[in-house]
Design goal:
MetI-like fold; mainly alpha; single chain; 322 residues
Length: 322
């Protein structure tokens, strides 16, 4: 198991290196892309462009520029923005990261609990009216766009019923956990629920299908033959094996959302997270912030997949020999 974990750690480092190189080349070596022109502004004369290229090191060979940028970003931690002169990149990432982490972790807990609960109950009640009703709920959750649901939630809680039933709902924005835990939770409650609706429906449907397939396996028939109750067979035998694809799916979704895929949710609810920071930096072609954001996102996505592989190996020992 230790050897398997070390192999995954080494591959994680190699993947992150490859991502950093590809991202750098996309923004600095693509024909027609000139960061100096964006920094200098419109109608800049050749002398100004040359001065900007020299000042930002854009006139050096690509390998040198890559090494210098990674040195300033990962070792010295003093890489600065091209747009907001003098503004360090790392503090911007560190300021936005807790917002996104708070949003995604809270939503993930909710969607995993309800996804597993709905999927398990649906499989246990197959053949009854409860099964299609629960699956309809799951389909509705999957079909509703997050940004539309978020706008509807805001319309109800911030406008139509804010002075009545939802008078306790705070204005849009974010309050840090250390500043006020109660306000932190209140500001994130509806963003959590809105984001969880989509993924709870997906996980419920996937888990139901896996459970129904597992209940027809030989080891489940053997457990029934031993006299175990249907509930124990479902929970102790079928559910464990059925969670393997759920764990894999969770790793992909969690890593992507932490990396900035929760952008629409952040925009709708006014959360200054990593997705919003990346979007703004792309709008302004602020390359240092883009590079840092992409590496941050890649780190969490690759790390989440590595953790999933290790958990997968713990659940199914056959994976360790792969």
């Amino acid at each position: 198991m230790t050897r398997f974990a070390l192999r995954r750690l080494l591959s994680t480092v190699l993947v992150l290196f490859a991502i950093s190189v590809v991202t750098f080349l996309i923004f600095f070596a693509t024909p027609g892309v000139d960061p100096a022109a964006r920094i200098a502004g419109r109608n800049a004369d050749p002398a100004t462009l040359a001065q900007v290229r020299h000042e930002f090191g854009l006139d050096r060979p690509l390998p040198v520029r890559y090494v210098l940028m990674m040195d300033h970003l990962l070792i010295k931690h003093d890489l600065t923005s091209y747009v907001n002169r003098g503004a360090a990149v790392i503090p911007q990432i560190l300021h936005a990261a807790p917002v996104t982490l708070s949003l995604v972790i809270g939503a993930a807990v909710i969607w995993m609990v309800f996804g597993i609960l709905i999927g398990t109950v649906s499989a246990a009640t197959r053949g009854t009216i409860a099964d299609p009703v629960l699956m309809i709920v799951g389909v509705v959750g999957v079909s509703v766009p997050v940004y539309w649901l978020g706008e509807v939630v805001n319309l109800i809680t911030q406008d139509k019923l804010h002075s009545g039933v939802f008078s306790w709902v705070p204005p849009l924005g974010y309050v840090s956990l250390t500043a006020n835990p109660v306000q932190w939770a209140l500001h994130l409650l509806f963003p959590w629920l809105t984001l969880a609706v989509l993924y709870a429906g997906i996980y419920a449907r996937v888990l139901r299908g896996e459970l129904l397939e597992a209940l027809n396996e030989d080891y489940v028939r053997t457990a029934r033959a031993k006299g175990l109750s249907e509930r124990r067979v479902l929970i102790a035998h079928a559910l464990r094996c059925s969670l393997i694809p759920i764990v894999s799916l969770f790793g992909l979704d969690f890593g992507a959302l932490i990396g900035g895929a929760a952008l629409l949710n952040e925009v709708v609810f006014g959360l200054p997270g990593l997705g919003l920071l990346t979007y703004n930096s792309l709008q302004n072609l602020d390359l240092p912030v883009i590079i840092a954001s992409v590496l941050y996102a890649a780190f969490f996505i690759v790390l989440a997949n590595a953790v999933v592989d290790v958990v997968y190996a713990a659940i199914d020992p056959r994976v360790r020999r792969a």
